[in-house]
Specification:
two-stranded antiparallel sheet; nine-stranded mixed sheet; 13 strands; alpha/beta; 11 helices
């Protein structure tokens, strides 16, 4: 098994129904967090981890993703003519971030099926999977942390995080076997369990390092939770014969596939934006006391 992971897969074929009507005509992955589309944060995490090739699994009405990472000669010419060198450099850098490839998931059959669509691109190599709904802020990044661990264990690694017990039904939940600090040997796992049946509150978050043996298992998996082909089900099969590890990563995670998580990411990332930080902090300092006061008055009236 290779000790270096060189390829990454980013599934981006979902409908984004939780953000309708905003996602009726644009991919949810292109919704901006401050001034950068969500998927660019994910691509940059891969690039900063010095990985060579990226495959984005797309679907219908996802052309904007390809356009974003392609060159825009007309825009570049306009910025050049206006001598807007900083903006020109930024736009040019986006199109040269990495070698990005695309394949369509023709049917929305679940995350497991989306990963299976990458089998020809991956071949017989270990690979990373990054979900666009999870932005994780840290240095080193979550992916870099996992790649470092992979060099030692050379096995499947799942990023995990503790979640409230009443939220376990939103995630794949692991059943731990051995715990060695942040590294946990996985005994079993279940997709979106009822809280009273969950084996733990350790939820799988959108970062994986997978071995190529996952593909024949995905081929066998039958539709599971939600009528979809679940990656979790293939990982359960894998764990019976091969080591699977979970890793409690370091970093702040934002679930930007959820409206509240998206707003939290936007506000907190803006607080550290090089151009916006100072005026945005001043704005919040001025508006929050009065807004909270108005909310308290409204609450009293409702009573």
């Amino acid at each position: 098994m290779l000790s270096i992971v060189k390829k990454a897969v980013i599934p981006a074929a979902g409908w984004g129904t939780r953000f309708l009507p905003a996602t009726k005509a644009q991919p949810k992955e292109m919704l901006p967090i401050v001034d950068k589309p969500t998927i660019q944060y994910i691509v940059e995490e891969v690039v900063n981890a010095k990985m060579e090739d990226i495959l984005i699994i797309t679907g219908k009405n996802k052309r904007a993703i390809e356009d974003h990472f392609d060159r825009s000669q007309e825009l570049e010419n306009i910025l050049h003519e206006k001598a807007q060198k900083d903006l020109l450099s930024m736009v040019e850098n986006i199109s040269s971030l990495a070698d990005i490839y695309y394949i369509r998931q023709k049917e929305q059959l679940g995350l497991g099926h989306a990963v299976y669509c990458a089998r020809e691109f991956i071949g017989n190599e270990p690979f990373a999977v990054l979900l666009g709904d999870d932005i994780i802020i840290n240095k080193p990044s979550c992916l870099e942390q996992m790649l470092s661990i992979y060099k030692d264990v050379k096995a499947t690694i799942l990023a995990v995080q503790e979640v409230p017990e009443d939220e376990v039904n939103k995630y794949g939940i692991i059943e731990p076997e051995d715990i060695d600090g942040p590294i946990i040997k996985v005994k079993d796992m279940v997709e979106k369990p009822d809280p009273d049946k969950a084996p733990s509150n350790l939820a799988v978050i959108g970062r994986y390092i997978l071995v190529p043996e996952i593909f024949p298992l995905l081929e066998k998996v039958k539709p599971g939770a939600g009528g979809e082909i679940q990656l979790t089900d293939a990982l359960r099969m894998l764990a019976k014969n091969s080591p699977v590890y979970a890793y409690r990563f370091e970093g702040k995670r934002y679930d930007v596939g959820d409206k509240l998580g998206y707003l939290q990411a936007t506000i907190e990332i803006a607080l550290f934006h090089p151009d916006l930080s100072k005026p945005f902090r001043e704005y919040l300092a001025n508006i929050i006391p009065s807004m909270l006061g108005n909310l308290e008055v409204a609450a009293c009236k409702d009573k």
